[in-house]
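User: What would this chain look like folded?
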Amino acid sequence: MSENQKSELNTKKLPELWEWAEYYCPWCYVAAVRFHKLADQYKDKVFFRNRAFPLEVYGGGPAPYDILEQEIWLAAIQESDAEFKPLTSDWPTTTLPAFDAAWCANQQGYEIGLDFDLRIRRAFFAEGRNIGKQEIMVDLAKEAGLDMPKFTKQFESGEARAAILEEGKLGKEQFGVRGTPVPMLGNGEKLRHAIAYPRFKEGKVISVGQLPDNGTDRLGSVRQMFEKAAAQ
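Assistant: Here's the prediction, encoded as structure tokens.
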């Protein structure tokens, strides 16, 4: 990866580990919980970077209630620290406001952005809040103690939307991202989470895939990703 492809927040020019993710994806939530536990431990070796991949634009469409209703319990039993509650009728028709808000939070600092990313996911899956509503994103920003004048200005300007759409386009066209979550090294090498994904047929779960090697060691597999990134 050339230096100009690295995040502007990566001031130490460390090797990067990316996670292409969508906010309505329960597997991205599971992955975020795990990454969040280790990112600080590797902060002097690896720059962990959340990358926007809105599926409603570049993937399979907006959040599918019937599919997620079947997936969340499978996700919950694979990560005890990812809290889930039953889905509510207040359902997001878009998650673009969540991406916008996450981008704005990231402009206020790396750790702030990392915390806010997980805060959004917990708001949706653990608290049942509609992350497609702009007012919910403003509430989350206030709860996180963000600089609200700065957040509001960027959130309303359209700057965030342009940035996240460009990033998603880059993921699809340059790095071959098709779904989420996709962990990736800064050189574009795709990695794999220790997650057993369901298989669907005609909108119903028909089986669950096998965990990859070391899949039972949840943090161990994530640690391997950080170690591989550090060796770049």
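The mean pLDDT is 95. If you want, I can go into more detail on any region.
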